[in-house]
Design goal:
single chain, about 190 residues, alpha+beta, 60s Ribosomal Protein L30, Chain: A, 2 domains, 4-stranded mixed β-sheet, about 25% strand
Amino acid sequence: MYKIETRRGGTVAGGLLLAGVLSCGAAAPSSGTVYAEDIVRTPLPDGNPFPIAAAVTVGAGLDTVYVSGALPSAINKDAPKGTAPVYGDMETQTVSVLTSIKGTLARLGLGMGDVVKMTVFMTADPAYDNKLNFPALMAGYSQFFGTKEQPNKPARSAVQVAALVAPGALLEIEVIAAKPRAKRLR
């Protein structure tokens, strides 16, 4: 048994069968009302506290917003062009990118809690023995997701790439967010 959190703040107790029933829009016992337009975030198994969701189901009545990949902002104009120090270390770059995404979402009337899927593209970090600096990524990421202030966790993938369009950038992040469908004027 585990608890599934819904967009409207309700929770549903159950197992895999219940998750399947919810994704079909059928009624299920819960401590809150479950609506077809809810976003259902399935936690990782066995109470794993890692700040991602195992899956996120976006129901009917919601629009999905695809946010293009964001790169870090330059912070050190004196660093050699095309090097990581131009953008800072991995944690600094992660915070820069997620802050940029937060701003894009805000302009659309959304917040970080509306993110349902994230893809992180990472390059090897010269300051981390030319390996992926996943701990530093998580240090920045954990400031935005799975916190007391913003507990929602997106489904997420992180992949290594050979290079990014901005030489020296260590990561690029793209997200998909969901929001209630806007009334359309005709």
